[in-house]
Design brief:
alpha+beta, four-stranded antiparallel sheet, three-stranded antiparallel sheet, 13 helices, 14 strands, about 35% helix
Length: about 400
């Protein structure tokens, strides 16, 4: 297995001298991708999660590069991207999806920027495309589009430098269109498969079925998760994270202690101050706990944090959750009733020079804002009440 950086180097080696406009540097797994594949052109390469890092099989990476190199290339063999052929009736509504639409969005935005900078060249106060939507937008030249969008890529392909413009549309080399058509088809199929439970085959668009594991994404429905995994019953209360990481058990054998319905856990959440296990969390909840902004908005979150015997004994919360606890209290007490907007977007808490806190509460849909100052003693009282609510 090789790292993403080495994968880019391998692709650059395989693509040396290849005329197809590709950019190996863009070969990287997107953070919120729905599957574990990274596309180089139309070729999917599986990413493997090892030691919490994404890595690739070198032979698969090089094979992807060689597949692109083997394609025929004639920059003068151009095709019309519109979803109809000359002589056939035009569709009632132009296609607005996929790579064609992406290029059109780039052109629309570049045209808007040019009009804002230089004014409208047609002399009207409001510009819009031709009715079919395929011509360059008013105020944009081919040179202007190239200047702004030459480095924009789709699946590591650079389409804009290959475009040839006519008065009512743009033409693209047949090979580039083939690569992007095949990529779009494969991407659609992989995205559809990401909503199928890997155990029972049930289908759903519910994103909670899609969970991160130490080896990559896993799709499992709540019923299969509950049937195949264990609920955490404080079996590791008082255990150190270092000991559990070395000798087990695996967090992936448990359900997330916070999610409801529970998703498969991905990691042992632990207190960094005391080094003690708190319980198994899925990748989403574990990330949220680490950020400290919204974790306390989750049901059972305070009790979970106090599963650390050290925090429980000292009746305290981890430092990065203290401001969140104040935001939580103010959001409930002074915010709009029933507001489900993330509390850090509604409540601002800033530590003052004298150890107090300057606070502002304004929920979306709420008239005006509420400003107040908390003294250090008042803040400690709120934190103490928050801890007491979590002691069970």
């Amino acid at each position: 297995m090789i790292s993403q950086k080495l994968a880019v180097q391998c692709l650059a080696e395989e693509m040396r001298g290849c005329p197809v406009p590709m950019v190996p540097e863009q070969f990287q797994r997107k953070r919120f991708a729905e599957h574990d594949f990274v596309f180089f052109g139309h070729v999917p390469v599986r990413a493997h999660k090892l030691a919490n890092r994404w890595q690739f099989d070198e032979s698969e990476v090089r094979a992807a590069g060689r597949t692109i190199v083997a394609l025929p290339w004639d920059p003068n063999d151009l095709v019309d991207p519109r979803p109809h052929s000359p002589g056939k009736p035009k569709p009632a509504t132009p296609a607005r999806t996929g790579w064609r639409e992406q290029i059109r969005r780039w052109a629309d935005h570049a045209g808007f920027v040019m009009r804002m900078k230089n004014g409208c060249s047609c002399g009207t106060s409001f510009c819009q495309r031709r009715s079919d939507g395929w011509a360059l937008p008013c105020g944009l030249t081919p040179e202007g589009l190239l200047q702004r969008c030459a480095n924009h890529s789709i699946a590591c392909v650079l389409p804009v430098p290959t475009l040839v413009w006519s008065h009512d549309t743009w033409l693209i080399p047949r090979t580039v269109a083939l690569i992007l058509d095949l990529w779009e088809e494969a991407e659609t199929a992989l995205a559809a498969g990401s909503h199928v439970c890997g155990t029972c085959g049930a289908h759903s668009t519910d994103s909670t079925w899609h969970t991160s594991t130490t080896s990559g994404w896993k799709v499992i429905c709540p019923a299969c998760a509950a049937a195949g995994l264990r609920r955490y019953r404080q079996e590791l209360a008082g255990a150190t994270y270092a000991g559990v990481r070395e000798r087990g058990p695996r967090a992936e054998d448990f359900l997330c202690a916070i999610c409801e319905p529970a998703r498969p856990a991905a990691a042992w959440d632990h207190c960094h101050e005391h080094g003690l296990i708190r319980g198994p969390l899925c990748g989403s909840c574990n990330t949220m706990e680490g950020q400290g902004k919204e974790f306390l908005a989750r049901k059972g979150s305070v009790q979970h944090l106090l599963n650390c015997n050290g925090c429980r004994t000292h009746r305290t919360l981890p430092p990065h959750h203290r401001l969140a606890a104040l935001r939580r209290h103010l959001h409930l007490e002074r915010g709009l009733q029933g507001c489900d907007v993330p509390m850090h977007m509604c409540v601002s808490v800033t530590e003052a020079a004298d150890s107090g806190y300057e606070c502002t509460v304004r929920c979306f849909g709420q008239r005006g804002s509420s400003s107040l100052r908390l003294t250090a003693a008042e803040a400690e009282h709120i934190l103490a009440r928050t801890v007491e609510s979590g002691l069970i």
